[in-house]
């Protein structure tokens, strides 16, 4: 038995050539000219194959199951974020009732925005691949502590998507949600960022970013900002939701991602350039944050993409 709830606007669904349902952009956006739409969905059991014409970001808020596509079986769990390429067929199996928010993006809008978005951003990477015609689904994991923030962000998007004259506010809210996912991806088991870092924490992060290849010790970093190690750990946890060591690892991973995107360095060279002593350790940290291996990530930026250039290059 399967149960799926969705907005009435998704009733205009056509059958694709393979027999799967195809949800067109007209079905998602209706008469709206907005490049973004959002909806809350819930489903249970086996959901038959379906495809979407716009790019779909599925944000799991509760429940467990699997999302199944060609040669992929991805776990659905709270905090899992999926980027579903346009036209890619998939079906879902929910062991429990899954509640999720869906963010729909017109492909031409994504293409217009890509040149201005940061390279070292996990969600942007998967959006770039989806827009380029990649059929593999992207998956990121936000820690369970971040599900509340995801829920608030999704509900805000849905409220704005249903209101007249709120296109700018809707795009701003979508940007906020994308930013939160980007800075929280790969943080399973960690607390979630609660604020922009202030004072000593901001200085400590700047010191780490300025010298990623230094062999940092917690007491060295504490001396840089005139705090005790216990004070520094406490402030990092309170303001960023992560430890100083986890912050350094994230900075190194993002620097490695940007290096792979804009240079011809090998994986080991980019890892060393970002301060990693072991390319294997760097690779594991990279996949945990970006959802793909460094080599897969690098290849995405070393092949021609569909009319996409980067203002960051």
From TrEMBL:
GO molecular function terms noted in the UniProt entry: DNA-binding transcription factor activity; sequence-specific DNA binding
Boundaries of every HTH araC/xylS-type domain copy: 202-300
Keywords for this protein: DNA-binding, Transcription, Transcription regulation
UniProt xrefs under SMART domains: HTH_ARAC
Top-level taxonomic group: Bacteria
Gene3D superfamilies according to UniProt: Homeodomain-like
Span of the signal peptide: none
Pfam families tied to this protein: HTH_18
Record PANTHER family: HTH-TYPE TRANSCRIPTIONAL ACTIVATOR RHAS (PTHR46796:SF13), HTH-TYPE TRANSCRIPTIONAL ACTIVATOR RHAS-RELATED (PTHR46796)
Protein name in the entry: Helix-turn-helix transcriptional regulator
């Amino acid at each position: 038995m399967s149960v799926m709830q969705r907005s009435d606007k998704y009733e205009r669904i056509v059958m694709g050539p393979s027999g799967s349902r195809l949800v067109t952009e007209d079905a998602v956006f209706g008469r709206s000219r907005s490049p973004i739409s959002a909806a809350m969905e819930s489903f249970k059991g086996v959901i038959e194959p379906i495809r979407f014409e716009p790019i779909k970001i599925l944000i799991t808020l509760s429940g467990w199951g699997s999302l199944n596509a060609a040669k992929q079986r991805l776990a659905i769990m709270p905090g899992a974020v999926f980027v579903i390429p346009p036209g890619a067929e998939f079906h879902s199996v929910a062991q429990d009732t899954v509640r999720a928010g869906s963010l729909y993006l017109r492909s031409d809008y994504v293409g217009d925005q890509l040149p201005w978005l940061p390279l070292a951003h996990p969600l942007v990477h998967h959006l770039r691949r989806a827009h380029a015609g990649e059929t593999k689904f992207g998956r990121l994991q936000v820690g369970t502590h971040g599900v509340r923030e995801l829920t608030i962000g999704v509900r805000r998007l849905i409220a704005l998507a249903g209101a007249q004259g709120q296109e700018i506010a809707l795009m701003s809210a979508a940007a906020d949600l994308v930013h939160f996912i980007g800075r929280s991806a790969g943080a399973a088991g960690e607390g979630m960022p609660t604020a922009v870092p202030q004072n000593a924490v901001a200085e400590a992060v700047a010191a780490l970013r300025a010298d990623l290849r230094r062999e940092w010790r917690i007491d060295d970093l504490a001396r840089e900002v005139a705090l005790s190690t216990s004070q520094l750990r406490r402030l990092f946890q309170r303001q960023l939701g992560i430890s100083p060591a986890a912050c350094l690892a994230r900075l190194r991973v993002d620097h490695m991602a940007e290096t792979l995107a804009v240079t011809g360095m090998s994986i080991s060279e980019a890892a060393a350039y970002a301060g990693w002593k072991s390319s294997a350790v760097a690779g594991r940290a990279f996949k945990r944050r970006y959802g793909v291996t460094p080599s897969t990530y690098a290849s995405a930026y070393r092949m021609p993409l569909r009319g996409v250039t980067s203002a960051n290059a």
